[in-house]
């Protein structure tokens, strides 16, 4: 099972690892699960594009809402592209490339014998799957090799030096997959451009769907904060007609929205990033606290600065991110720490006020 954003890395890692394990360990059944409702699959434009290209049709895929809740409690779970999950007690193996969140309560619920392969030095979880795929002679599948190869190329920004989104393992796996597919590295650029175009194709999506397209949810005891990742800059998104209505629909039950924008130039592959913090309930101090945490972060340093042209859209905070190597997997832990610190400082605040028609009998003098 991949993560709840179901981006290309997450979806491909789940499908390909399940195939490899199903062929090698026939005494068990391995079923890949895309960790989204089936209705959201059309939002994952790059996933659908690559799956169709490699001969995988939607009807053969299983989604989170296809699995009965009672069944989930009775199976072993392998997590790919994330390692914090409410299914932690059932998890037997993890493949991930995100910074370790070993302080998370659910991480501490992992079984003692759970196998961990968490390597933040790689740019793509598909690289970790490719290591397993290539470690033995069987099984072999052109479709699996294509899926893994394409995903690593996209996740590493086609090994762009400026992005620094790759390590030696990513390069080694791509080269081995290209050898198996009889491809040359010169063909990577056209593949990368094709996938970037598919990911950025939001022509058939509403603005609310654009926000939901690559969404993750950060949850604490008192807050639910959605983090939207978009294939366009936030500054450009808020200029679109209907943007405010879409933002309100997207964050209807949240105090804070974090929106991350990224634009990849089709001409030279240059990456631009920006982010927005918006409070639908007008909690300006809350927004400032999260902004301060992001601005002061040194691990990594995000190099956030105001946009050249200021915007008053919904009273939000809009910042240009000059360290384009930092991604959501780096930003999410910073936001979470800021939320927890805010909650600790406001431990006596109440989310609800109760009014009694009569004086309550509390047993106090």
From TrEMBL:
GO biological process: one example: pteridine metabolic process
InterPro entries registered for this protein in UniProt: DHH_sf, DHHA2, DHHA2_dom_sf
- GO cellular component annotations of the record: cytoplasm
In Gene Ontology terms, what is one molecular function of this protein?
Answer: pyrophosphatase activity
Q: Origin, by domain of life? A: Eukaryota
Pfam families referenced in this protein's UniProt entry, alphabetically: DHHA2
DHHA2 domain residues are 192-339
The family classification in the record reads:
Belongs to the PPase class C family. Prune subfamily.
Q: What protein is this chain from? A: Prune
Q: Which organism is it from?
A: Drosophila melanogaster (Fruit fly)
């Amino acid at each position: 099972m991949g993560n709840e954003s179901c981006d290309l890395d997450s979806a491909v890692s789940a499908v390909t690892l399940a195939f490899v394990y199903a062929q090698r360990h026939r005494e068990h059944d391995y079923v890949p699960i895309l960790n989204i409702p089936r209705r959201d699959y059309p939002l994952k434009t790059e996933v659908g594009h690559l799956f169709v290209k490699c001969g995988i049709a939607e009807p053969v895929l299983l989604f989170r809402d296809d699995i009965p809740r009672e069944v989930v409690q009775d199976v072993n779970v392998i997590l790919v592209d994330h390692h914090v999950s409410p299914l932690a007690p059932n998890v037997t193996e993890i493949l991930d490339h995100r910074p370790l969140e070993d302080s998370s309560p659910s991480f501490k619920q992992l079984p003692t014998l759970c196998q961990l392969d968490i390597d933040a030095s790689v740019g793509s979880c598909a690289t970790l799957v490719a290591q397993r795929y290539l470690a033995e002679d069987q099984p072999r599948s052109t479709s699996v090799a294509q899926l893994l190869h394409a995903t690593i190329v996209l996740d590493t920004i086609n090994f762009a030096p400026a992005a620094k989104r790759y390590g030696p393992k990513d390069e080694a796996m791509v080269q081995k997959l290209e050898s198996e597919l009889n491809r040359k590295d010169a063909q990577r650029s056209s593949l990368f451009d094709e996938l970037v175009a598919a990911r950025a194709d939001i022509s058939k999506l509403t603005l609310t769907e654009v926000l939901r397209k690559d969404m993750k949810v950060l949850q604490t005891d008192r807050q639910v904060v959605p983090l939207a990742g978009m294939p366009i800059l936030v500054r450009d998104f808020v200029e679109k007609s209907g943007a405010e209505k879409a933002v309100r629909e997207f964050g209807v039950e949240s105090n804070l929205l974090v929106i991350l924008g990224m634009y990849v130039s089709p001409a030279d592959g240059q990456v631009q990033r920006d982010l927005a913090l918006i409070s639908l309930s007008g909690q300006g101090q809350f927004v400032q606290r999260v902004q301060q945490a992001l601005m002061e972060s040194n691990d990594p340093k995000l190099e956030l600065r105001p946009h050249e042209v200021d915007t008053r859209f919904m009273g939000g905070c809009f910042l240009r991110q000059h360290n384009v190597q930092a991604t959501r997997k780096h930003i999410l832990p910073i936001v979470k720490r800021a939320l927890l610190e805010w909650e600790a400082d406001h431990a006596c605040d109440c989310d609800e006020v109760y009014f009694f028609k009569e004086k309550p009998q509390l047993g106090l003098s």
